[in-house]
Amino acid sequence: MKQDIFQAISDPTRRAILTLIAIQALTPNAMAEKFDMTRQAVSKHIKVLCECELIKPEPSGREIYYHLNAKKMQEFDHWLAQFRQKWETQFNQLDNLLSTIKKQQ
Description:
Layout: H1 5-9, H2 12-23, H3 28-33, H4 39-51, E1 55-60, E2 63-68, H5 70-104
Antiparallel strand pairs: 1-2
């Protein structure tokens, strides 16, 4: 069963893995060293991230390096952009209201 991108990023460990490999491609062993969990547990998280295409494997010799799939992240960012504009407008309105209240005190 293919994983949903929102299920994938709802887990803090998977978000941490995305953050790690955004900097550089890593093997599962290298990722496991960054967490207090087994390599097998990390591999399960990697599997979910691969199924929703947020990361891509790249074999190199006997190792598999995982890269962030920037194109998929960009698709997700475009989807979020429609909401970002609305909440930024609301936050700006709140900032203006709070500034006005502060000036009146």
